[in-house]
TrEMBL record, chains A, B:
InterPro entries, alphabetized: Ald_DH/histidinol_DH, Ald_DH_C, Ald_DH_N, Aldehyde_DH_dom, PaaN_2, Proline_metab_enzyme
Residues in Aldehyde dehydrogenase domain copies: 88-475
Record's keyword terms, sorted: NAD, Oxidoreductase
One cellular component term from this protein's GO annotations in UniProt: cytoplasmic side of plasma membrane
Name of the protein in question: Phenylacetic acid degradation protein PaaN
Keyword Methyltransferase assigned: no
GO molecular function: L-glutamate gamma-semialdehyde dehydrogenase activity
One record GO biological process: L-proline catabolic process to L-glutamate
Length: 563, 563
């Protein structure tokens, strides 16, 4: 343990400083380059992934009653053929509670060191995990490595920072003296940091690690055992994570059951069986707004942290960089086939057109230009593969077909969602962006989230109504990332105030190589908790401070021999 | 504002340091002595109180539709005759939301300075407030001054500290730079601290200020307007507080509607009308476990912070100071007629008796000795008046009669709850403690809270079962303050672990002048949130961190002129 502390506490300090300054920092290797990882690592990671296929997944868990697995690769459309151990919920919960008892004796520094050791273990299998993410979520290789790897690990470390901060806000022990009349009273006080109970971490299919790592870390730091419940279509990345975390726990003489796995199938979901149990005190949920909202409304005796989804908007009023703006927006419409919680859907423009460095451009021309930029990005299959990846779910293919069919009801079909030919995986489930233009902003279809590469270019009477519509949708339907383009300072100020009121974070005039979707650990606040897109932020003090409680014990000073 | 900052920020710093060290500190005058307040202050405060009687209460509120008031003094049993303005909930909420818009521009330091100015204003009317508390809650003069005055103000300041800490955890503004490929991206980021909405602060009848001050302060600091909903039987102390806070807001050019008042009667309660409104995002509740639990379970879309009640236990295994222990316990059974959330109810002792510095004493003798110490405390009416005060509610009189009548069903009536003759108020609603001894620990009546001067001396087979029973009651029925007396280190360790598991704070072997009930601001953690006695702690990071959310706005560095 001493070595772990020496190795990892400097990292904790650096990460904590970054959280305070909100300046750029990363604790992990953000590129898959062999210069960082060595020549062998990428191929070895791929082989490790391949060796898992068609096999029972090797993971010892308490209370195993059978095996299951129904994952299908979005790239090959073949079953992965991996069976995972199924644990009995009651035995699993009992094992988690038991593990919490031994974990309790660790102080915040020790917990942080162990958590960072786990994150390092996850980094050591980053290539294996990348392929696991690709063949379950459909992410591209680069996104699987960076977004689901290094960036997700940074989010995990960020949660360690905040939990450590909350746990060290009080001393463990204090002496208190006060005169009552003529008598001095001196008391010793000990503060116990008591976890709430078990935490069920429910993961999404398309980007599981990015939310699950911080949730697991927040729970472990605050003493709650984490029961990881992956999406039935995306078990493997989380099974690998659970395997590595349990390995670190065991290697350090700790009960591995601080991290457990609960797998299920679409036909026989298991979450409810855990939610019914009183010892499950915390739920971390990433997924649909419907289920997230149900959890928030109906489980008043548990702490619920949700990140769901929303309808993200881009409002375009004017720009001094038309090409840069079109490129940035087109990139974001393609990136991971817009299967990200930060992907934009609604592009709001004024009927009078947009003033740009290339002159005023009308709504129809702007929409066409945008579609053209998308075409340019997906015309080359290799480029499309790197940018769009594959569609995680068959549902999304069907959604695209339905929306394309009824495009004329909504407005004008600007761009049809054709599959592209993936150069490496001929059977890959792919689609390029569907874009529909409309001059009728009031339609209900525009207020719904359409998960996948779907966007609407919506023409409004004027810039103010464009902004008001985007903000109203954010407030009522949720939004995680919104954007505005304007060279008018007053318009930007109004946009900032409108989106603050709607509880949606805003990015202004972003062009250049940083994707619109990018959210930086230690700097960007992700999900505000103020609109239906979720009730929690990854990661802030509120994300951690109520996962544990403080119980005190006090006694007259010097009257007790305690350890 | 500059002067306010200069005056009050040093106080904030001292209070913050106390919260970190948990050492003794107070920001307010903890004694009513004229040496601290001047010769005139006590009498002037009493006159101020008397001038309120039989009059409409002077308070301008938005949307007043009428007046009401039905308070009756527990000391005189006469109506106070004060009518308070009734505000229309919709207009009241609209006014609160409007006030929040101007409050927003204040930074955390400015908010803290204003909040401390409000606390100082409350201190300046401390004698008026003391009499208001006496004649609604039934507290004695000293308790009304210290417990409901200085100590409550300290709790309010403690909430200011934690909220300030949470609000300053992030900078308001940051610059972030990162290379994407060969391009450097530099973004400015602004973090908005956005309140959740309106907060309804529902107060209890017997000790309103102690919980309401921290709740109001936590809400104001985080930007949420506070709608104070006093108990219909205890409006006056909160109306005075609202009047003073609004006066400070107005005097500093701020919208006074950051603090509003919602009064009602027992027959026509108004809380539900506020709870139905979506803009009421936070509820701070002090009161019954039943309503608190209903709020927790059924208002999943609001943030609920509760302090309710529980069954507090004292476990006596052994002592090296029998006289000190008996005095301490007897004092606590009498203090404010045990109408405090920290009052003990169940006294658990082993059948084999208790080893003491005066030899082993059997359960029957111990119970009799305890009853004798109570007798000694309440035999002198002047002493009884200072210690017991009056019974807040007529219900309590009836409860005592019912329990005394059926004492033989439970065990043996050790001490009957006789009224004592209050020397100043002959009509005062008073009662001395009811004590029942029993050898049957399993009875349901022992697992319920009986609000008022009711206690049971419960004999168990052995010390371990005494402890187990007390801890089980705490876990399942809630407990806020528990006590153990033992000279055996191992027993103390076991007790500490048992109560930690039950989520109840523990005090060991307390004797001497500090009352068992005393909870020190900046040092003691009050309510753990781990058992049915409430879900929140006054005050910690969790009490404040989720009352506001963070919305960010980012833009390429240098591209925007912002204020």
């Amino acid at each position: 343990m001493h070595t772990l502390l020496e190795t990892h506490l400097p990292t904790l300090k650096q990460a904590s400083d970054a959280c305070r300054t909100r300046a750029q920092w990363s604790g992990f290797k953000e590129s898959p380059s062999t210069r960082l990882h060595g020549e062998e690592a990428p191929a070895a990671g791929k082989r490790a992934f391949e060796s898992l296929l068609g096999q029972p997944f090797e993971l010892e868990l308490p209370g195993v009653t059978g095996h299951l697995g129904e994952e299908v690769s979005p790239y090959t459309r073949e079953p992965l053929g991996i069976d995972y151990p199924v644990a009995d919920p009651e035995i699993s919960c009992r094992a988690g509670l038991e593990a919490m008892r031994s974990w309790r004796r660790l102080d915040p520094d020790q917990r942080a060191a162990l958590c960072i050791e786990m994150l390092r273990a996850l980094e050591s299998v980053c290539f294996e995990s990348t392929h696991a993410t690709m063949h379950t979520a459909g992410q591209s290789y680069m996104m699987g490595f960076v977004g689901s790897g290094a960036n997700a690990l940074d989010r995990g470390l960020e949660a360690v920072v905040y939990a450590h901060r909350a746990l060290t806000d009080l001393p463990g022990h204090a002496v208190w003296r006060k005169a009552f009349g003529k008598t001095d009273v001196a008391l010793e006080k000990r503060y116990h940091f008591v976890p709430r109970g078990l935490a069920l971490v429910i993961c999404c299919a398309s980007f599981p690690t990015w939310n699950a790592y911080p949730s697991i870390m927040a729970n472990l730091m605050t003493g709650n055992a984490a029961i990881v419940k992956p999406h039935p279509g995306g078990i493997l990345p989380m099974a690998i994570a659970v395997r590595e975390m349990r390995r670190v726990l065991a290697a350090n003489g700790l009960d591995p059951n601080m991290v457990l796995l609960a797998v299920d199938t679409r036909d026989e979901p298991v979450a409810q069986r855990y939610l019914e149990r009183g010892e499950v005190a915390i739920v971390d949920f990433t997924g649909s707004q419907r289920f997230g909202s149900w959890l928030e409304q109906n489980l008043g005796n548990k702490r619920i942290y949700t990140e769901t989804s929303g309808v993200n908007s881009i409002v375009i009023e004017s720009t001094d960089n038309l090409d840069g703006m079109l490129d940035a927006v087109a990139h974001s419409l393609c990136l991971f086939s817009a299967q990200m919680c930060t992907s934009p859907q609604n592009i709001h423009i004024p009927a009078g057109g947009v003033e740009t460095d290339q002159g005023r451009i009308g709504p129809a021309d702007l929409a066409l230009a945008l579609a053209g930029r998308v075409d340019a990005r997906v015309g080359n299959p290799a480029q499309a593969a790197g940018l769009c990846g594959a569609l995680q779910a068959q549902n999304t293919v069907e959604l695209l077909a339905r929306l394309a069919d009824r495009a004329a009801d909504v407005g004008e079909l600007l761009r049809a969602p054709e599959p592209y030919a993936h150069p490496e995986y001929p059977n890959a489930r792919t689609a390029t962006p569907l874009i529909i233009a409309t001059e009728r902003p009031g339609q209900d279809v525009l207020k719904e989230e359409h998960f996948g590469p779907v966007s609407f270019v919506i023409t409004h009477a004027d810039p103010d109504s464009a902004l008001a519509s985007a903000a109203a949708t954010a407030a009522t339907r949720g939004a995680i990332a919104t954007h505005v383009y304007s060279v008018d300072n007053d318009y930007l100020d109004a946009a900032e105030q409108s989106f603050v009121d709607a509880g949606a974070s805003l990015t202004c005039n972003l062009t250049g190589p940083m994707p619109l979707n990018f959210a930086a650990a230690y700097s960007d606040m992700h999900v505000t908790g103020l609109n239906p897109a979720g009730n929690a932020c990854l990661t802030d003090l509120a994300f951690v401070a109520d996962r544990f409680r403080i119980v005190q014990c006090r006694w007259p000073q010097g009257t007790r021999t305690t350890t």
